[in-house]
């Protein structure tokens, strides 16, 4: 495995080890699997944690161990089990399948998108023994004919077709209404099954002081606090997008894995020409549809594109240049960050919900969630440019 691939993903480097909290999580997870593998009712193990807390790293390591035990020639309680890791995210699925080729105990067929797996298990009337779900907050909570999902909740279907389900869930990374969970709905849902929950709260991606993470957390709740200055994390706010891009290019030349990313505030239609993101004097094309097996962040040509939440969620960058588009603004009266859903160009995010009442607060939360995902990509640096001039001046004043 290349160093770049390890750095860009949740895959631990060869010399790395799980932290004590992650080791405790893995131990509890396997205890839970063994206890619930042969019980009448499915068991549900939920891993919570903010972006960058190592949820996927634990999940990937635990799944590799599970499959090694399943395929071991030595008798053990998990020998011969049929297990899957599911993720409703094309770019992350590419990483999982790529990593499968580097581990003798893993197969590409171990990794699936939810709808094809649900439909196949239902058609053959089969049960998976253990189903791992990464980014469970991206699962659908309503039918979606475009994705050939005709049932009502992908998590319910996966539980119905599994003996044990292990899922990563972060409500602050829900990016579409069709994946939305009401805060009051998840706990009663879990209560219907034997379940256990584990929270990871140590930040592993954003290096240095917790001050930067705290600043981002305040920002994504609409609050502005003094810009932190920390020695080992480069946090800058720019008056124009071009100098930010120039610095990102320099960072990529020296340490790689540095990219421009933006909120979904600029028009884009799939397979209909080239669409652009503008940031002051900067004009760059949106990321293209990626039909290769290589994730967006690992392809050299994407240094000349702007990535979206859909290409970068779940990945690590070394330096992230984040463009806050027109939907993100500032209210001088209250000194708060505001969002304008009517300016958000990802209308797919707001489609097809008539069961949630007033959608305006939920739409605002989805935009803030997308900002949270973008701002927590960089390990060593975060660069910000705000298209809205009032917000930009307020950020520069910090």
UniProtKB/TrEMBL annotation:
Domain Schlafen group 3-like DNA/RNA helicase: 44-388
Domain of life: Bacteria
One Pfam assignment: SLFN-g3_helicase
Signal peptide positions on this chain: none
SUPFAM superfamilies with a match to the protein in the record: P-loop containing nucleoside triphosphate hydrolases
This protein's name: DUF2075 domain-containing protein
Species assigned in the record: Lactiplantibacillus dongliensis
